[in-house]
Amino acid sequence: MSEQLIISGQTKKEKYTSLLPQIKALTEHEPSFIANLANTAAALKEAFGFFWVGFYLVEGNQLVLGPFQGPIACTRISFGKGVCGAAWQRKEAVLVPDVKQFPGHIACSDLSKSEVVLPLMKDQFVFGILDVDSDKLNDFDEVDVEYLTQLCTWLVSLH
After folding, report:
1. Which domains are seen in the chain, by residue range?
2. Which of 37, 49, 65, 76 has the least C-beta neighbours within 10 A?
3. How far apart are CA 94 and CA 86, in angstroms?
């Protein structure tokens, strides 16, 4: 596959349906998990124009910043802290329409308004997090959770 995305569709669902097979084609033969995370973050940012897209990887009792696209970010997040730490602790997606309303939200950027975070899990063990931020309130919904969950499942299969 050429390293160029072709995104079709007007709705969020149509864009995800167009994007996910391209990410799979881009990553399926690449043995470097870090490279695959980097290209996945870039593809999501390019396709949707999200404010920030990135991964955190578990090291001990912290999430450590991994490949991302967007402004500089928090480097370390503790277990259970902020939206990312909550997704790690709960072992499930966390959808936040307004980050200011989320108790303990960690503001890496004041421009972030809404967020969706999904765990990367293998055998009930969270080893990473996909974090997607928007500079718009209420920018994420169950469509994002559905397709980003599919994407995370794919990425876990490569690990």
Report:
1. 12-158 (3.30.450.40)
2. 49
3. 7
Q: How far apart are CA 110 and CA 3, in angstroms?
A: 32
DSSP 79: T
**Cα 98 from Cα 77, distance rounded (Å):** 20
Residues 6 or more apart in contact with residue 37 via CB below 8 angstroms: 55, 66, 67, 128, 155
- Alpha carbon of 145 to those of 72, 94, 152: distances in Å? 24, 9, 10
- Amino acid in position 2: S
- Other CB atoms within a 10 A radius of the CB of residue 13 amount to 13
One digit per residue, the tens of pLDDT, for the chain of length 159 reads 457 778 877 899 999 999 999 999 999 999 999 999 999 999 999 999 999 999 999 999 999 999 999 999 999 999 999 999 999 999 999 999 999 998 878 777 788 999 999 999 999 999 999 999 999 999 999 999 999 999 999 999 998
